[in-house]
User: Which sequence fits this backbone?
């Protein structure tokens, strides 16, 4: 799911404690978030709407924008048309817990990538046709497998052991339909990974599949790689295509190459090499420590541009990947999670206290915790500057501050970086973190200190500039 991009280490090691003189010697580093124009209008033009929502639903508040997921899906369809591609898109719904975003994906005709029977049940309840679900994961339970086969979902088989379980199941249970499977491949470059099967296990499954008749149908091959380099996906396409050819020689009829997720997102408007080098400067951080890498904030191309790069890449002998797929009657399947949720969620925190510290830094305490804007999962740091929505217009000198959650844990820091502000924020101002739909907003949320779970609402802009909102967290009727 990630790439290791090492930041330019200026003055490697960093100071043991923050040394104000050195901090001052470094000019402020702005990492300006990219914002969809509709959200930019709202945040900058109608801040009172956001203030009203935080008053009503509390802080932190997660807002999802289903229409923006649909916009991302439309971009995928443009790629499909541009390249005359057979393209299956499965929304990897683990990227966040929103129901409204799953529903939006389903409404555009996308499938859903599910990794638990709970994700499966939600997707079906939200309107997904079972045939448009693709189940992945290395540890599917027996009950999950039964439900998947019975409903006619596509199953990505992760191991020879799982394949054997599926064979046993179709032998024992009279399903009304065949088990539809992909075989998940583990390329040699990922030899240490616990996901997927190496060549020998794949071959074993293939020869078994020649004997399963129509109780188990091979639809294709699957791969999901960490990182978001399109070059690694080009290698993946070549590898999967080789397996398709081999399976077809054996008389099987696979047609789908599922290359998984990992399409990039552009978070930062100025992610220039220079800004990223500066992001590696330990003096930009109150604790004198730059994160080891800047994933996923260094995306320079969005998912649409990324897919174009992949499809236009030479496959062989002057033939592009798109042409190769077409001449071999192959369907490309993708499972974007993060990138389909691009711009489709934001998290808003209310500032409760602005405090001056002996090291001459200032900390903004927010109502909420780093669990609600987390990069802990990626051992990185939330690299985007939050947008300040002041309670009222105010004049003052520019200032820098770092941002901490309200808990009593020393580690509960949202942003160690000294974020530049036009004017020093005050208590009751809001901080808007845009684009938190990809694993950041609710992956680790909890009720620490018995604070209630953060609310999640869905919203859409309506003509006239107002917005419609509805609950999206199972509390109250869901849209
Ligand atoms: C998590 C996951 C995805 C989604 O990855 P993103 O980086 O969010 O696009 C897709 N497929 C599989 C199998 C996954 O585990």
Assistant:
């Amino acid at each position: 799911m990630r790439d290791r991009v090492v930041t330019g280490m200026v003055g490697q090691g960093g100071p043991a404690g923050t040394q104000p003189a050195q901090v001052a010697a470094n000019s402020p580093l702005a990492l300006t978030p990219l914002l969809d124009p509709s959200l930019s209008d709202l945040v900058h033009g109608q801040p009172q709407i956001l203030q009203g929502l935080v008053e009503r639903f509390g802080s932190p508040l997660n807002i999802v924008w289903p229409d923006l997921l649909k916009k991302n899906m439309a971009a995928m369809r443009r790629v499909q048309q541009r390249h005359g591609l057979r393209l299956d898109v499965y929304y990897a719904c683990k990227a966040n817990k929103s129901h409204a975003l799953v529903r939006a994906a389903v409404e555009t005709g996308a499938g859903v990538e599910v990794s638990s029977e709970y994700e499966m049940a939600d997707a079906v309840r939200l309107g997904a046709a079972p045939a448009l679900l693709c189940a992945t994961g290395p540890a599917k339970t027996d009950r999950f497998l039964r439900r998947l086969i019975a409903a006619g979902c596509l199953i990505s088989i992760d191991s020879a052991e799982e394949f054997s379980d599926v064979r046993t199941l179709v032998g024992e249970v009279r399903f009304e339909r065949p088990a539809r499977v992909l075989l998940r491949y583990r390329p040699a470059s990922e030899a240490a990974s616990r996901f997927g099967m190496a060549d020998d296990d794949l071959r074993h499954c293939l020869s078994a599949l020649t004997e399963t008749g129509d109780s188990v149908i091979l639809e294709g091959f699957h791969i999901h790689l960490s990182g978001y380099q399109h070059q690694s996906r080009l290698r993946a396409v070549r590898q999967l295509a080789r397996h398709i050819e081999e399976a077809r020689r054996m008389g099987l009829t696979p047609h789908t190459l599922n290359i998984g997720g990992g399409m990039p997102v552009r978070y930062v408007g100025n992610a220039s090499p220079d800004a990223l080098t500066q992001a590696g400067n330990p003096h930009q951080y109150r604790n004198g420590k730059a994160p080891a890498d800047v994933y996923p904030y260094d995306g320079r191309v969005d998912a649409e541009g990324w897919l174009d790069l992949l499809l236009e890449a030479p496959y062989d002998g002057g033939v592009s990947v798109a042409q190769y797929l077409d001449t071999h009657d192959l369907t490309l399947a993708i499972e974007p999670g993060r990138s389909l949720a691009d711009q489709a969620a934001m998290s808003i925190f209310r500032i409760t206290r602005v405090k001056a510290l002996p090291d001459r830094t200032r900390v903004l305490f927010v109502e909420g915790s780093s669990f609600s804007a987390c990069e802990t999962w990626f051992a990185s740091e939330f690299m985007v500057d939050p947008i300040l929505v002041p309670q009222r217009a105010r004049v003052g000198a520019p200032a820098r501050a770092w941002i901490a959650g309200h808990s009593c844990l020393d580690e509960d820091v949202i942003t160690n970086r000294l974020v530049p502000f036009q004017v020093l924020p005050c208590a009751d101002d809001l901080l808007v973190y845009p684009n938190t739909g990809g694993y950041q907003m609710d992956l680790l949320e909890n009720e620490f200190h018995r604070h209630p779970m953060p609310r999640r609402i869905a919203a859409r802009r309506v003509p006239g500039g107002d917005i419609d909102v509805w609950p999206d967290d199972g509390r109250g009727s869901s849209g």
